[in-house]
Model the fold of this input.
Amino acid sequence: MIYYNPKSWFALIFKLHKTDTFRQLYRVIIAIALYTSCFVVLEEYIFDGIHTSSLQVHSLLGFVISLLLVFRTNTAYDRWWEGRKLWGSLLNNSRNLALKFSSMVMHKPAHEEKIILNQWIAAYAYVLKEHLRGKSTAEICSHSKEMDLSALKDSWHLPNAIAAKMNETIQSAYQKGLLDGHQLLLLKDELTAFTDICGGCERIRKTPIPYTYSLFIKKFIFMYTATMPIAFVGDFGWWTVPIVVFVFYALASLEVIAEEIEDPFGNDANDLPTDEISQNIAASAHELLR
Done:
């Protein structure tokens, strides 16, 4: 995730970064410029005096496409923000579980249970982060820095396996008499919330915008841009080239931005800071359960 000062207008206007939509679209922009130039040459030098203006039609279509793109970007941002809320809930839930368990066994010999629960809480954040990035169980287990997960390498759903281990740790503390029945019930909500958060994140990741809708927007942008030179060249001449290029850049950029943020759990620059949140969860659990 990119951190920046939103009040620094001029610095943001002239700043380029690797995820700038212009970098991703410049080849298509060059093609659009050449395509439009062909229409200008035909109008200015071959079929001089033939005007095919239909600005009213494109004005109406521009209003329609703007509504579609507004809906598209709002939907993508809603998914990004919901993902951020879920990871915020994971941070708070991890802290609450560590805080409650630590206070419940404060005056009891539960050093081993604290260490184990600390490791599982930190491991859950790391595992969920990598799971949402599409990595396999074997890859996650082999690269885990929080704890040795080799015993879980055969698990089909690793986050659920970690959640089960946290439940086992709490149940072990109860069986040893470190927790009573009332305290066990107080920890139930936190334990259940881990699975709920994982399910919410998976819903976002595995349910992209419907294929037909995404395809329609891309086709609409293409057809709208492809017919603009025919409508504009008679009135604007060579100015048609920068006008068409700018309109295409604006419309296509909105679609590219929406595609990037609708799956907020990856490694793109504008995705959620799940690495940082995972580190904060591990640090909080270690501090509360040390």
